[in-house]
Amino acid sequence: MSSPPPLTLPQLPLQPNVSVFDIEPSAPSPLPLAHGMDDEELLWRASMVHKIRDKELMKKKVPQPKIAFMFLVRGPLPLAPLWDKFFLGHEGLYSIYVHANPLYNQSYPKQSAFYGRRIPSKEVKWGKFNMVEAERRLLANALLDHSNERFILLSESCIPLFNFSTVYSYLINSTKSHIQVYDLKGATGRGRYDYHMSPLVRLWQWRKGSQWFEMSRELAIEVISDKKYFTIFSKFCKNSCYGDEHYLPTYVSINFWKKNTNRTVTWVDWSILGPHPGKFERPHVTPTLLQKLRSNYTCEYNGKKTNICFLFARKFMPGTLIRLMKFSRKFLKFG
To answer: Which of 53, 62, 168, 218 is the most buried (most CB within 10 A)?
Structure first.
């Protein structure tokens, strides 16, 4: 099989001129995440961190910027060995947060990047608004570490499509957040709007998008501090309205559209009809598939065109791990 064509990388370094190669990584022990705060106190504390951080910035005590990888999972992380290969050697440039069903008690091996990274969690059900509550819980925990600059939401079926250096440079240097936002007419779009949300949210402002977001610290603080939109969505976005598809896209579209790309950096196969995306099993994982996801798209990055549009992809089933590990070094460029 011939080698895949070279990728067209974004122009790096970009503002704020931070590259993984310019930083001397440190390797602190992961901070313990167990705390006794309820959601209200957690969100309040997270919203106040920026004031402390501003003072430390004045004193130049803030360490190198990190990316917060936030995993919203049901229980186990079957693809953790692949992620461990992805993170290896980049300690001090990332933080990991895992929100799992509180009834799931299995821990991760001490040598894993996921060891000790579970946050105090609550039960989450598909299609319920508590999915949004879990996302905010992850953001709030990640914001408590004032060195986290970018925040990416992932699932247990997500995989990285590039090595850590590429992902780090892409996100740290991005001038905008990556939250998919679009206006969709019909039953699964505007049809989910509840007129009781007016006048705060009107029908023409209603938006839809992928749950799997990536955002800046500035926007993350706004999201966990929001009470006005969050309250009205929690009250009226029920039944056929799925909060994780509508709250954040609508909120960001109304208030922060200039700071958003309106696209996600996590690829999902929606070519099949139905409420759930396509799944990838072991035979589906091929170099051709991986190369397609890495470079067969065109988008805008910091005002310029690039063929690196997706940094992650889902839904990869547990049985794909061996093949992904096999191809990671040659085609994903890590491991």
So the answer is: 168
Q: How far apart are CA 23 and CA 8, in angstroms?
A: 23
- CA-to-CA distance for 193 and 206, rounded, in angstroms? 7
Pick the CATH number of 23-268 from 3.40.50, 3.10.620, 3.90.550, 1.10.3470: 3.90.550
Gap between the Cα atoms of 115 and 111, Å rounded: 7
Average pLDDT over residues 12-38: 54
- DSSP summary character for residue 328: I
For the chain, where are the alpha helices, taking DSSP H only? Answer: 39-58, 80-87, 130-143, 164-172, 217-225, 228-236, 243-255, 287-295, 321-327
Cα 299 from chain centre: 18
Six-digit token string for 21:
């190669």
Give the per-residue pLDDT at 242: 93
How far apart (Å, rounded) are the C-alpha atoms in residues 161 and 280?
14
pTM confidence score = 0.89
